[in-house]
């Protein structure tokens, strides 16, 4: 097990306050809140954002990139787009200094089970009761996520092994309607993010839909979908592209589907619908 390392003097961090420290060559976000000291990896598990640069409110830190929130006491992921906890570490206060000991990995139910926070005036470490390390309604941290595929957004990507394809009834739901943007969006509600289990329309990933007559196939249309990702390196990108094409080409009046990845403006949580927020337990 790693040893405690003195990282800073107690007087150097206000309450509430935060700072970035280095422990055994790793960057750790250190927090001083309500006379307690807490430490977690300075890494958002969604796309690697620097948590120490985020906004601190009580015991929550928000990633400055996409707004995912984490519990500083346990490392628990509290809001999407993060669904996995970040690693929390042991902290103690001794001889006027703050000491941090790295933990090996984030526990399935959050490191608080073993104790990691430190009172401002006590040398011994102790734990705080807190929720488990997962977003409500999503798989436990110990549950394997969908097998990631290449981070590149190749349009010919296929679903990862073991991941079910989207239901084949999306096109049937609007089969009696003329193909239009609303019909396309209704079909795309059958395509779900493999980690969040929320459809890509309610997540706010669809920026635009363009329909045009297919010159090579009279009576059919070419569908172009402008889609974004929750982060530039989203591992589910190739799967979402493939599932989008598959869902739309089920329509007999669709000649071809083009998925164009758009990262400007970048995705933010406020693009989600109320339905998505309710499903993810975000209020």
Key terms:
single chain, alpha+beta, GMP Synthetase, Chain A, domain 3, eight-stranded antiparallel sheet, three-stranded antiparallel sheet, 4 helices, elongated
At a glance:
By secondary structure, the protein is an alpha+beta fold. It has helices at residues 170-173, 181-188, 237-249, 274-280; strands spanning 5-9, 17-23, 26-33, 36-41, 55-57, 60-62, 69-71, 88-94, 97-101, 117-119, 125-126, 206-213, 221-227, 254-261. It folds into two domains: 5-126, Rieske Iron-sulfur Protein, CATH 2.102.10.10; 170-280, GMP Synthetase, Chain A, domain 3 (2-Layer Sandwich), CATH 3.30.300.130.
CATH C-level of the largest domain: Mainly Beta
Helix and strand string, N-terminal first? EEEEEEEEEEEHHEEHEH
Identify the CATH homologous superfamily of the largest domain. Rieske [2Fe-2S] iron-sulphur domain
Instruction: Count the beta strands.
Output: 14
Q: Which fold does the CATH topology of the largest domain refer to?
A: Rieske Iron-sulfur Protein
In one word, what is the shape?
elongated
Most strands sheet: 8 strands, antiparallel
Architecture per CATH nomenclature, i.e. the level-2 architecture of the largest domain? 3-layer Sandwich
Report the mean per-residue pLDDT as an integer: 79
Beta-strand fraction estimate:
25-35%
Estimate the helix proportion, in percent: 10-25%
Number of domains: 2
Structural class: alpha+beta
How large, in whole angstroms, is the Cα Rg?
A: 23 Å
Low-confidence runs of at least 5 consecutive residues: 108-115, 121-168
Distance between the termini: 39 Å
